[in-house]
């Protein structure tokens, strides 16, 4: 009995040692940087050390709503953030449908070719994506040159400088870059469907479309729901790189999302403390969103991820 207890204890210690490196990495890269939140309560100006900077309490939080100009600016940034995140959320079913489309292709080589071609853009940096966009859609790019040659236009279309459809354009570039990669999880979910469900459906005379509707899609809903919950939790996290490389003087007001706004405030305006205050608020709202969606999931489906 004593030997069995020792064996169980040794096993538990071994399991803990397996996850210890990941816990250390999580602490170093996820929790330790939260120390930087302290800058939001000081009037910090580089290179003056924080210890010599005056403590200002909640001044920078109040400054976000102290005048109409700042309120309008913040509302425009939130509008851009919600608009672009809303588009991504609205079409969050696309990777699932693309995964179904891929698995329905019977020619293996063609399927692998499509999957490879659609997955590769995920590994391309946003700088290279913008280079591609510039070579295609700039005033001297391929698209304008072709349209001029066939006589459809006489002056170049300034697509990259146009702020009217920038949300749609950003969503299309993001979808092109991530569609294949995002479909991988759904392909794995399709591969894990029990074959007996397919056999039972075909025995009952189901067509291929009926099999997709009554077997494949319901089996993928749990995966879709979890990924959607995580997407809602990161609703305010659009990322920085895509919008940074595509921004210019003409579309800045329409393309500036929260992450880019924080970066521009800190690096462009030198307002480090204000940018940290906004980042703090964004993180707190994201946590609230996560627990709200998690609570809704528990209420509606009886399952949650937290």
Reconstruct the topology from this structure.
Elements lengths: L1 H30 L27 H5 L4 H23 L3 H11 L3 H12 L6 H12 L4 H8 L16 H26 L3 H9 L4 H26 L7 H6 L5 H4 L2 H11 L3 H30 L5
Helix pairs in contact: 3-8, 4-8, 5-8, 8-10, 10-14, 13-14
Describe it for me?
- With 306 residues, the chain is mainly α.
- The protein has 14 helices and no strands.
- It has helices at 2-31, 59-63, 68-90, 94-104, 108-119, 126-137, 142-149, 166-191, 195-203, 208-233, 241-246, 252-255, 258-268, 272-301.
- Helix 4 (94-104) crosses helix 8, helix 8 (166-191) crosses helix 10 (208-233) and helix 10 (208-233) crosses helix 14 (272-301).
- The chain is globular, with a radius of gyration of 25 Å.
- The two termini are 36 Å apart.
Q: How can the largest sheet be summarized?
A: none
Helix content range: 55-70%
Overall 3D shape: globular
Order of helices and strands: HHHHHHHHHHHHHH
Number of separate strands? 0
Helical region count? 14
How would you state the average pLDDT, rounded?
88
Q: How much of the polypeptide forms β-strand, as a percent range?
A: under 5%
Poorly predicted runs are none
For the termini, the CA-CA separation is: 36 Å
Q: Structural class from helices and strands? A: mainly alpha
Give me the Rg, rounded: 25 Å
Distinctive features:
single chain, 306 residues, mainly alpha, 14 helices, globular
Brief summary:
The protein is mostly helical and 306 residues long.
């Amino acid at each position: 009995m004593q030997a069995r207890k020792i064996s169980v204890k040794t096993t538990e210690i071994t399991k803990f040692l397996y996850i210890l490196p990941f816990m250390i990495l999580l602490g170093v890269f996820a929790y330790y940087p939260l120390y930087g939140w302290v800058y939001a309560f000081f009037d910090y100006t580089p290179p003056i050390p924080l210890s010599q900077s005056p403590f200002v309490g909640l001044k920078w939080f109040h400054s976000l709503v102290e005048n109409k100009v700042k309120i309008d600016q913040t509302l425009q940034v939130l509008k851009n953030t919600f608009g672009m995140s809303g588009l991504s959320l609205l079409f969050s079913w696309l990777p699932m449908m693309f995964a179904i489309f891929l698995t329905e292709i019977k020619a293996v080589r063609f399927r692998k070719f499509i999957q490879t071609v659609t997955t590769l853009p995920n590994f391309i940096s946003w700088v290279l994506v913008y280079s591609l966009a510039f070579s295609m859609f700039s005033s001297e790019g391929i698209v304008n040159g072709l349209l001029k040659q066939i006589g459809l236009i006489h002056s170049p279309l300034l697509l990259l400088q146009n702020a009217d459809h920038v949300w749609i354009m950003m969503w299309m570039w993001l979808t092109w870059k991530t569609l294949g990669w995002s479909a991988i999880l759904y392909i794995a979910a399709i591969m894990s469907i029990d074959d007996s469900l397919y056999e039972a459906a075909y025995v009952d005379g189901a067509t291929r479309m009926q099999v997709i509707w009554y077997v494949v899609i319901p089996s993928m809903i749990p995966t879709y729901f979890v990924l959607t919950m995580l997407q809602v939790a990161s609703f305010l996290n659009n990322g920085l790189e895509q919008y940074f490389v595509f921004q210019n003087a003409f579309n800045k007001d329409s393309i500036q999302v929260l992450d880019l706004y924080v970066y521009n405030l800190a690096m462009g305006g030198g307002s480090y403390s204000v940018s940290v205050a906004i980042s703090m608020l964004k993180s707190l709202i994201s946590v609230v969103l996560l627990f709200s969606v998690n609570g809704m999931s528990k209420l509606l489906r009886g399952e949650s991820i937290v």
